[in-house]
Amino acid sequence: MKQQILIISALFLTLFSACETRETGNIKDVTQSEIYQDLSFISDGSATKARATFSFAGVRGTTLKLTNPSKVLFNGQPLEEKTGQYSGTYYEKTFDTVLSDGNFTFTDTKGKTYTNKVELPAIDFKVLQLTINRTAVTNLPVVNGAKVGESSVELEISYQDKQGFQRKYMSVLAQKKDEESAYFDAKTRSIVIEPVIWQSIKAAQVKIKITSKASADLQQGTSIGGKINSEYGGKTVSIILSGKSAATISAIIPKSNTNTRSANTVATTNTNSTADLANIAADSATKKPLAKKRIIQK
To answer: Is 116 exposed, middle or buried (0-12, 13-18, 19+ CB in 10 A)?
Structure first.
């Protein structure tokens, strides 16, 4: 019992530490050369969000509230100050369009300016509806496919089967590794999915969403440094799967052909026997019955 209590207590401590509240301090109260910049550039395919968090002495340090003359801009526009219990103070702005790139400009209290350019690792499917044969190799043409290899590209495959809603994730590799991996073909500028992937799915329709992520160090920052994280959520393609899944194929293959062979043999034997009997019957009908021999008693 005591051991169970200790385990439960440890779990609570782990959860608590993972959701630890972040404090906020004033930027004017810290050494300006020890400010860490955490910059994010995210798009869902219809809008783009720019976000910046400043913290003292590292990524998990106290977040900083900017006061005049310090400020942060994205493409020349100021970001709005926001706060969260677990995120602390951060600065953010949403643009109602997809931006391919932009510039974060941060100025500290001493007037020193740091500029960092960000690029969106955009990648999208060219065709959003198609029918494919689950027993054949699938090529899904994409735009901006050159980003594969420079960023982390992931596929989210979702579908409904008898067990309910299912979702699986696959990383897109820069080149083919094995039969169970998706990879980018630079010649056809398409993502290739091997048949073994579809064979495991017991559904007639699937949806695939593509997402790409990239992370890089700052171009300009203090000695503490910082990170630039960018993410793009592409459009979703709807796919109808034709052909049989592996489970269906295995279900219709007979376990053994021994019984079939025996049945054929029996059928052939019975057919021949029936013909022989018919011939014998015909012969009997046409022939006269044999006369009985007369027995002479001496």
So the answer is: buried
Residue 290, C-beta contacts closer than 8 angstroms, at least 6 positions apart:
none
* Ramachandran assignment for 29, one of left (phi > 0), alpha (psi -120 to 50 degrees), beta (any other): alpha
Q: Which two tokens stand for residue 64?
A: 């900083």
DSSP 192-208: EE-HHHHHT---SEEEE
Q: Return the bridge partners of 236, or none.
A: 209
| Residues 131-179 pLDDT 10s | 999 899 999 999 876 567 678 999 999 999 998 999 999 999 988 888 7
**How does pLDDT run across 229-283, given as a tens digit for each residue?**
999 999 899 999 987 754 443 333 344 444 433 333 333 333 444 444 344 444 4
Q: Is 276 exposed, middle or buried (0-12, 13-18, 19+ CB in 10 A)?
A: exposed
Calculate the alpha carbon distances from 177 to 9, 80, 202, 217, 271 in Å: 43, 45, 25, 29, 57
